[in-house]
Amino acid sequence: MPEDMETAAGPVPELMPDDPIHFVRGRPLKLLRNPEDDDSDFSPRSSPNVPLPKPPGGGGGGGGNVEHHVTVKYQDGGPETQLTAHQYNFMHDDDVNLPTDALAVVAPLIERLNSDAMTIIEELAADANAAIPVDWQMPQTDGGATDFLRAHDAARAAGGGEPDAHSVTPGYYVNGELQERPSEETPPAEAPELPDTGHGIGQWASLGNNFSINAALIVDIGESARTMVVMGDYFKTDAIFQTNTIMDDDRVRISGGDREPSSTSDQDVATNIADFVQNPSIYTGFSAQFAGPNWIVDVVDGDFYSVHAVAQVNLLSDNDVATQVSSSSHYNLVSGYNTQGNLAQIIDGSVEYDLIIIKGSYHGLNVIFQNNILLDNDKIKMAADGADPSQSASSDNNNLLNDATIANYGGDTFDELPGNLELIQRLLDAGMTSLDPELAGALIGHGGPLKVLYITGDYYDINAAWQTNITSDVDVMYQLQNQPVADLLALDPDGAVTQSVTTGGNELVNDAAIVDVNPDATYVGGHIYTDSILVQADLVPTASDSAVNGDTHALVTELIAFVDDHPQDTASPPPAAIANSVQSDPMASVLH
């Protein structure tokens, strides 16, 4: 992987509901705040844009008209967020199941295999990184995402607002094709269970079936105002980038016995799912109320930041080298079935403001990057000496899945800036503490004091997730099944002997959802720029795997020669440790 992988776009806490991301997807988000008590001086109506009523003028006796004004109270601050969360899992499970004297012979070959496998992983990661447009690479931090968005929006405005080269119509996409959304939700991914091998005579080896998952949910409620006023330009981009990379070059040889060997392998499956969802505003179905006479204005001097950045990485090395030599036994070898998981849930903001005024421009970005990388080159040799085993090998059946959803609530109703809202902005900017009540008719409140967020600079609203799974599962397996003794065969009603090897079945899953709650209505003084961007790629590796294949061939040749020279019937000792020639810091080896 390139040295800048950590800063390039392409490359588990307390339990939540079984599938929190699908929980959010499957249920509508509604307004959570209850209306406060009405202001006693004014009677809220069911629609805006009508002047607030004034009490009638006094009668005789020297009475006069009573003037009512909107009272404005200013205070510093506003709930800003600049959050970065990084989650990393690194696991090395390079098992060696060999007799000690055999280990001494092949140790250099094993070290070379692990080193060459990591080199191939780096090349596959470089290919995945190259599939992401160069102008969309950014540091995986809140500050890096903010700097990227600032430059991105400036370039788009300078270019006249031309859409991105990868712009798409919002909708549900599977492997690059726009489709109807399924009526049923996708079942959550689950780690595989070990198979039941029974109690018969034979050899079973499970060297794959690893499970890696990243799951992230970001719910951003901070912009859930009834009304947003943007004096400058309005920018909003939703983007999803997904890649799956598989190198799976398997070599299986089966000999001995009179039965036809069977292959239980299914094809590898790689799937990219991207869903751009536009939901109604959370205020849909709620009656409009007047803005009351008491306004509370939170003032932010300068730019405002609501930024959430989550990066998740699973790195697994499960390169196994093993032999099984037996006759009168049930020999079950398991060196795979590793599980890794990262889970992040961020829920930020509240339904707090009725009105957000931005003196500068609004910059919005929801973006998800997902990458799965699998190296699964295997070398399997199954042999029988005097036995008639039922032989089967499975070396594929890997599943790679990227599933990303960006769900917006509201935020799709725009209008030009009317004069009364522009006047309100100027008066608040000047710090006026008393306003004509006629102006309140231009706004929708909730019956209580009107809460306003006033920003003198730009507004940066960013939700970003990076998810990466990397698995190296290069396996070398030699099985030799000798003829069981007659007395043992007599105990088995079927008299069957089994040889079975499974080296595939790996599952790599990225699942991310961004739920962005937007204003009910947005008034813009400048230009409006919106876009939806999608890149989905299932990559055919261009890197050569000749080095890894050469290593596995040399290893299996040595193992066969060793077993043939040592024809004892013995189960191998516990796996022995092998020094890995790759650097001890996996971050340095793979992710910079």
Note down, in words, how this protein is organized.
A hairpin with a 2-residue loop joins strand 4 (172-174) and strand 5 (177-179). This protein has helices at 20-26, 100-130, 142-158, 419-429, 486-491, 546-565, 586-590; strands at residues 70-76, 81-92, 96-97, 172-174, 177-179, 201-206, 211-220, 227-230, 234-247, 251-254, 262-263, 269-279, 289-290, 294-300, 304-317, 320-326, 330-334, 339-348, 355-358, 362-375, 378-385, 390-394, 399-409, 414-416, 434-435, 444-445, 450-455, 459-472, 475-482, 497-502, 507-517, 521-524, 528-539. The radius of gyration is 32 Å and the shape is elongated. The longest helix has 31 residues, at 100-130. By secondary structure, it is of the alpha/beta class. Helix 2 packs antiparallel against helix 6 (546-565). The protein is built from 7 helices and 33 strands. The strands form 6 sheets. Strands 24-32-8-19-27-14-1-25 form an 8-stranded mixed sheet, with helices on one face.
Distance between the termini: 8 Å
User: What is the beta-strand fraction?
Assistant: 35-45%
Record the strand order, biggest sheet: 24-32-8-19-27-14-1-25
Overall form: elongated
Give the low-confidence spans: 1-66, 569-592
Could you list some keywords that capture this structure?
single chain, 592 residues, alpha/beta, eight-stranded mixed β-sheet, seven-stranded mixed β-sheet, 7 helices, disordered N terminus
